[in-house]
Design brief:
Oligomer: single chain
Largest sheet: 3 strands, antiparallel
Order of helices and strands: HEEEEHHHE
Strand order of the largest sheet: 2-3-4
Number of helices: 4
Number of strands: 5
Radius of gyration: 13 Å
Shape: globular
């Protein structure tokens, strides 16, 4: 893991900021969720939930990640999805817009 990614992973996820799918990411729908391919780093990641794919794909439609979470995710599951978005931010699947 690069030092920059290590630092990103150590930072708390800023759910109050506006996020988007990283411009160098391509999402390919799969039955289990989606494949995310980063053209810059050439890494392939698996999003293993259709709900997570829907959340990630719609981030740019909301003022913040938190407002997207509140709109799309049941209250009992929100903490889990905040953690998932934090991991995706550290992996450069999503970034602040």
């Amino acid at each position: 893991m690069t030092q920059e990614r290590t630092l990103k992973a150590a930072l708390p996820f800023a759910a109050d900021k506006a996020w988007r799918v990283h411009p160098q990411i391509a999402l390919r729908d799969e039955s289990y969720g989606a494949l995310a391919y980063h053209f810059g780093t050439r890494r392939l990641m698996f999003l293993k939930s259709r709900t997570l794919v829907e959340l990630v794909a719609s981030l740019d439609q909301y003022d913040s990640a938190e407002s997207a979470i509140v709109a799309l995710i049941p209250e009992s599951e929100r903490t889990m999805y905040r953690r998932a978005l934090a991991r995706l931010a550290a992996s450069e699947v999503i970034d602040v817009r």
